[in-house]
Specification:
The chain is α/β, with parallel strands linked by helices and about 325 residues long. It has helices at about 35-50, 85-90, 110-115, 125-130, 130-145, 155-170, 180-185, 200-210, 215-230, 230-240, 245-260, 260-280, 305-310, and strands at about 60-65, 70-75, 95-100, 195, 290-295, 315.
């Protein structure tokens, strides 16, 4: 989901664009081995002291189970200015793997996947939506400068992705400046493994394409609502998060649960649950792993952090 949830990247675009994401060296040499949480805090605090005048530290969690440490942080949306947190950027070098929601690789033909999972030539988009929902699509398309007619052959989820991709471009919001892209730029592929919740873009499109009609429409509602709300609302939520205030993100997730319950069940509850086996896999790594997920996977009672606690992970908030 875009902005706070599923990440899709467009390094290789099919004829029908699939949308962008959303969905963010060694600090201390000894971090390659498991440390106590107090030692981790001291190391991170020292790094912050060595960066006078730096921005407020981006929220970061250290998770510990059976002697292994995994770091967890939230992705940022595309913004005019690139995300930066030297403390976290330096920490990446001590990790053996970085986990993101997906990677910008394809196994198959993107056009074939889009035709199979993203188009509905038998029923136009306008015929799949209620009057109010279509009015919101019209408004969001105008903001993003997307011709309304071009969306008609698309399923709701693909139309939402297309509008959002155009919106980011129209507003000059650069994906390469997200926390994920910045941190990925710090890794050397022969030293740090890049792993993902979805192994390839093919899996993301299949996941989206297998949504029910209700989930499909609710994904569009979720996306166009954020576009209509504008960058100021997004910045309010992310700005609060950056300063350690998770309330606005938690309120957003609660509203999603109320307004788009089917989408919430699939994309928040379902996907957060599906992350747990990956964390079990991370326990086998010789070095710590680093995980970046959308901000709305990190807020509320069904957050990934809460699920990990229930799964026996000790979680420490380091910022």
């Amino acid at each position: 989901m875009q902005r706070g949830l599923t990440t899709m990247t467009n390094n290789k675009k099919p004829a029908t664009t699939v949308g962008t994401s959303s969905r963010r060296q060694i600090l201390v040499g000894a971090l390659a081995a498991p440390l106590s949480f107090s030692a981790l805090q001291n190391s991170l605090a020292l790094a912050e002291e060595l960066q006078p005048g730096s921005q407020a530290p981006w929220p970061l969690w250290a998770l510990r189970k059976s002697g292994q440490v995994v770091y967890l942080t939230a992705q940022t949306p595309p913004r005019p200015t690139a995300w930066s947190d030297t403390r976290i950027e330096n920490l990446i070098g001590s990790c053996g793997a970085i986990w993101t929601e997906t990677r910008s690789v394809w196994r198959g033909n993107p056009n074939t996947l889009v035709r199979k999972y993203g188009l509905n030539l038998e029923s136009p988009l306008s015929g799949s939506l209620s009057g109010p929902d279509y009015a919101d699509v019209r408004k969001a398309a105008e903001i993003a400068k997307v011709p309304l007619d071009s969306l008609e052959p698309m399923r709701p989820w693909l139309a939402a992705s297309q509008i959002e991709s155009a919106y980011f471009k129209e507003k000059g919001l650069k994906e390469q400046g997200t926390a994920e892209r910045v941190l990925l730029s710090k890794i050397s592929s022969d030293k740090i493994r890049h792993a993902s919740e979805f192994d390839a873009q093919d899996d993301v499109i299949t996941f989206m394409g297998e949504m029910s009609k209700e989930e499909d429409v609710q994904f569009l509602q979720y996306t166009v609502k954020q576009i209509i709300s504008g960058t100021a609302e997004s910045e309010r939520i992310y700005g609060a998060w950056a300063n350690g205030n998770r309330d606005p993100a938690t309120e957003f997730v609660a509203e999603m649960k109320r307004s788009q319950p089917s989408l919430y069940a699939k994309h928040v509850v379902g996907r957060n649950t599906n992350w747990l086996p990956h964390f079990t896999e991370m326990q086998k790594e010789a070095k710590p792993s680093f995980v970046i997920v959308g901000i709305y996977h990190m807020a509320g009672p069904d957050s990934l952090v809460e699920y990990l606690k229930q799964d026996g992970w000790e979680a420490k908030y380091l910022s």
